[in-house]
Amino acid sequence: MARTIIEAERVLPYAAADLCRLVGDVREYPKFIPFLQSLSVVKEAPRPEGGWEGVASAVVGWKAITERFSTTVRCEPAKGEVDVALVSGPLHALDNSWRFEPRENGARVRFWISYQFKNPLLQAAVSANRERLARKIMSAFENEARRKLPLVQNAPR
């Protein structure tokens, strides 16, 4: 079974570094990502020029299914990058990246995730709903940005 890839892109009226820090603040995810039940950072080290890298463990749930997994996380706001990769869990593979590029009235945000579950039924269920999942993930972050971040000056409202 092949990996499933989800991609989304938006231009948002917030500073790229602010958006990067928001996405890199994984401890906050259970507060606004609907299917994420819990998340803890189990290892953390600061990065040169700001940001951090480490390992996070999460519990996700969809209806009657609950899964646990761990990932490495690297957040570098100065570069506009957040990268996530699988350490352990119910997946054969998981790679995720966020890229934030400054624009005159905000930032271009690109989200990309590639995954393959070990369980073929779970893989099929999630893959069949990947467009809806991409919208949910991006909407959750957009709503959190709207709630927490200041608009870039002169950005359209």
Q: How does this structure look, described?
A:
Helices cover 26% and strands 48% of the residues. By secondary structure, the chain is an alpha+beta fold. The chain has one domain (4-148): START domain (Alpha-D-Glucose-1,6-Bisphosphate, Chain A, domain 4). The protein has a seven-stranded antiparallel sheet with strand order 1-7-6-5-4-3-2. 17% of the residues are buried. The model has no long low-confidence stretch (mean pLDDT 89).
- What CATH architecture would you give? 2-Layer Sandwich
Main sheet makeup: 7 strands, antiparallel
The CATH homologous superfamily corresponds to: START domain
What is the CATH top level name?
Alpha Beta
- How would the global form be characterised? globular
State Rg. 16 Å
How many individual domains?
Answer: 1
- Strand residue content: over 45%
Classify the helix fraction into a percent range.
25-40%
Count of DSSP H/I helices: 4
Which structural class best describes the helix and strand composition?
alpha+beta
Major sheet: arrangement of strands: 1-7-6-5-4-3-2
Any low-confidence stretches, pLDDT <50, length ≥5? Answer: none
Q: Report how far apart the termini are.
A: 44 Å
